[in-house]
Amino acid sequence: MTYFVLFLALCFVLGGLAVASNLSLYYGVVGLLLASVMGCGWWLSLGISFVSLVLFMVYLRGMLVVSVYSVTLSAEHF
């Protein structure tokens, strides 16, 4: 169980680094998804289900909508 929690924490950090280091918005959204899912799994494995639900609802839904909107705007060519 300890290795599983450490694996989730490592994937969470790597997902955050993927968001911060990618210049392409498409790969940044994939990193955001990875970080959010791993963060939720990390908190669930520690037994903190309410924080996991809040992280999923606020972080994933709010930031993903902003990311999809910015990807849509950058894909338009006038």
UniProtKB/TrEMBL annotation:
It is found in: Mitochondrion membrane. It catalyses: a ubiquinone + NADH + 5 H(+)(in) = a ubiquinol + NAD(+) + 4 H(+)(out). Keywords: Electron transport, Membrane, Mitochondrion, NAD, Respiratory chain, Translocase, Transmembrane, Transmembrane helix, Transport, Ubiquinone. It is an enzyme of class 7 (translocase). The keyword Electron transport applies. It is a multi-pass membrane protein. One of its GO terms (molecular function) is NADH dehydrogenase (ubiquinone) activity. Its EC number is 7.1.1.2. InterPro entries: ComplexI_Subunit6. Its main location: mitochondrion. Belongs to the complex I subunit 6 family. This is NADH-ubiquinone oxidoreductase chain 6. It comes from Phaethon lepturus.
